[in-house]
Amino acid sequence: SPLHDLLVNLPKCEHHVHLEGTLSPSLLFSLAAKNNIVLRDPSSPAPATTSPNGGEEGEAFTSPAHLAARYANFSSLDDFLAYYYVGFSVLRDADDFEALTYEYLVRAAQDNVRHAEVFFDPQGHLPRGVSVEVVMEGFGRAVRRAEAEGLGISVLLIPCLLRHLPVEHSAQVFDSLVRDGHFASGALSGLGLCSTEIDRPPELYRAIFERAKEHGTAHAGEEGPPAYIASALSELSVSRIDHGVRAAQSAELLALLAAQKILLTVCPLSNLALRGVQRVADVPIRAFIDAGVRFSINSDDPAYFGGYILDNYCAVQEAFGLSVGEWEGIARAAVEGSWCVEGRKGEIL
Ligand code: HPA
Ligand code: ZN
Question: Any idea which positions bind substrate (predicted)?
Fold first, then answer.
């Protein structure tokens, strides 16, 4: 497209990427080998004759291509999440998190990402005995290495609470992050909310977000109704909404998002892969622009959804044919909606 060079060169901020969602099939396989882990398909039981557990375990994945083929066929958020959590099983030590983070930063720099706010799921690692300190150590090493190599990306790390687990578990983990001083030290920034959405309304997390002194954000309106977006704003006082695409079903909500200058962190290829939309053209980009709702364009779980951030920009351009001015507006909103210090924003634009 005629704007391709502009899209490549736009200085990008990524606000919606899950660290664990950047685990490429090739790295996943190499870490599985290193850590002696057999990867099993969570949704396909092995034939009883070949499984020592009488068919209760899934068929083993045999290659990165075998995994990638399955990734091309998700049916819903929860279907994807089952594979996403299998990926967690290969992440064991700080070296693993360093490799994961470094691979993402190098890939993001290729797309001219200048600032990345990266989610991770502490509760998804604790059951294997992997502490947040291990994640933070590996992440920090990768960021320092990227810095030393002049990649030019500033980075924040944001813990997300997992909605498929009991609220009490989220409360305990959040407490421990506060108690151990990770927010006060600046090692962690803000608080997010993700995983299964249906039947897990934001108000369940009100007491936790009330105690979060930092910025808050919540996945809402991905599969859930517009009411969940409204509730994340009123009950959790978040300043951003992750996805938020279902806001387009309510003119009143669009007006509220515009008035409160809430940033929606939209992920078009994610919505396509998880069947929230049938085509990228069904992501309500034009409705957001017309209503004056701010949004950024992001990759979510790029290793699973077939595209990194530039691929998402290009898919939007192919579907909507936006103008140069509209793209500059999107890039500006992304910088302004970032949680980096003001001085850094000036450097990016
Ligand atoms: N939605 C909810 N939870 C998630 C996602 C998502 O798109 N990606 C990783 N965790
Ligand atoms: Zn997400």
Answer: 301
Identify the residue whose tokens are 């190098």. Answer: 106
In a domain, 83, yes or no: no
Tens digits of residue pLDDT in 234-273: 999 999 999 999 999 999 999 999 999 999 999 999 999 9
* Residue among 90, 109, 110 nearest 100 (CA): 90
Which H helix or E strand runs over 134? helix 132-148
pTM listed for this prediction: 0.96
Residue appearing with tokens 């991905």? 222
Nearest CA among 200, 259, 267 for reference residue 232: 200
- Are residues 200 and 237 part of one domain? yes
Is 213 inside any structural domain?
A: yes
Q: How far apart are CA 304 and CA 269, in angstroms?
A: 10
Return the SS3 of 117: strand
Question: For the domain that residue 108 is a member of, what is the CATH number?
Answer: 3.20.20.140
Whose C-alpha lies nearest to ligand 1, atom 1?
Answer: 195
Q: How far apart are CA 287 and CA 10, in angstroms?
A: 23
| pLDDT, tens only, 154-208 | 999 999 999 999 999 999 999 999 999 999 999 999 999 999 999 999 999 999 9
**Minimal-distance CA residue to ligand 1 atom 3:** 195
Pocket test for ligand 1, best of 195, 199, 269, 304 (most atoms within 8 A of CB): 195
Claim to verify: residue 122 and residue 203 sit in the same structural domain: yes
Ligand 1 binding residues, C-beta < 6 A: 18, 21, 77, 84, 194-195, 219, 222, 270, 300-301
